[in-house]
């Protein structure tokens, strides 16, 4: 893989300094703004892959010379990136493969995160064959194995299980986001449950999705996906440039 990164942007440019993309022999992840600039960078990156080059720089005017009308100028650094693009993405664990869980997982698939849909029920997971799934009798164990800075979204069919997973996620102390579907009453009940176990319930987001009152799974999923991404980008601003 070759990482293409904007190291300097002058004038009007399609992306800011720090924006990057990853270029493989047949794949491209991320964007530096599209257009002829991106095509030139992809072509140069693939030349590097073919020749075994480790590093290159490009200084590109965004004018008539390349058929782009921004009028600015960008400098690019191209180098080999040992980590895969997926390894650089935050993890989003969705507990519960019901209607909302499946809709949210599909929405998150379009975003720069690693998403997993986790459930105890094989039949529910089978309804989302397009989503990376995890069938497990102990969903809370997946919380313990998750990377630091992960997001946890809790939407199971069982309130007791919801509470257990939320408590595990909050107890870690390193979660980027912990959200649970439900009402203000459910949140109040969980707060008592958490405090009895010495866990601060304050970081929990419940209800999820902000103030949306629409009950359709796809609408809840859209608002929740936006909420998760806003939280992740606030915590890890570097991901906003990818």
Automatic annotation (TrEMBL):
It comes from the Bacteria. It holds the Pfam family XdhC_CoxI. InterPro entries: MoCofactor_Util/Proc, NAD(P)-bd_dom_sf, Xanthine_DH_XdhC, XdhC_CoxI, XdhC_Rossmann_dom. Residues 4-55 form the XdhC- CoxI domain. Residues 92-228 form the XdhC Rossmann domain. This is Xanthine dehydrogenase accessory protein XdhC. The lineage of its organism: Bacteria, Pseudomonadati, Pseudomonadota, Alphaproteobacteria, Rhodobacterales.
